[in-house]
Design brief:
Order of helices and strands: EHEEEH
Strand order of the largest sheet: 1-2-4-3
Distance between the termini: 26 Å
Helix content: 25-40%
Length: 94
């Protein structure tokens, strides 16, 4: 599960909100997506609850000069954080 926020850092309310969605949907991993500013880290582990729900912040540089490369790096980081199946480039229908 991922939730986009248009601010540099999520608030306490943002974290509670995504945890509530995780609880309601039975999701173990979630990410808050924020813009990357000042070349900081792309991925930050934001915490793990006692029940094993893991929350991360994954950032994308919206001012990147090579947006295709930035999008690829972002998708890979988000895929890794959410423990999703890696894209193969093949269409699921063959």
């Amino acid at each position: 599960m991922a939730d986009a926020k248009y601010k540099c850092e999520p608030s306490t309310q943002d974290r509670y909100e995504i945890l509530a969605f995780c609880e309601a949907l039975g999701v173990q991993r979630a990410a808050i997506i924020c813009p990357l500013v000042n070349a900081g880290p792309r991925v930050t582990h934001h915490g793990t609850t006692r029940t094993g729900r893991r929350i991360s912040i994954v950032k994308i540089d919206l001012a990147a000069t090579n947006m295709q490369s930035e999008e690829t790096a972002f998708v890979l980081a988000l895929t890794n954080e959410l423990n999703l199946v890696k894209p193969t480039g093949e269409h699921p229908d063959g």
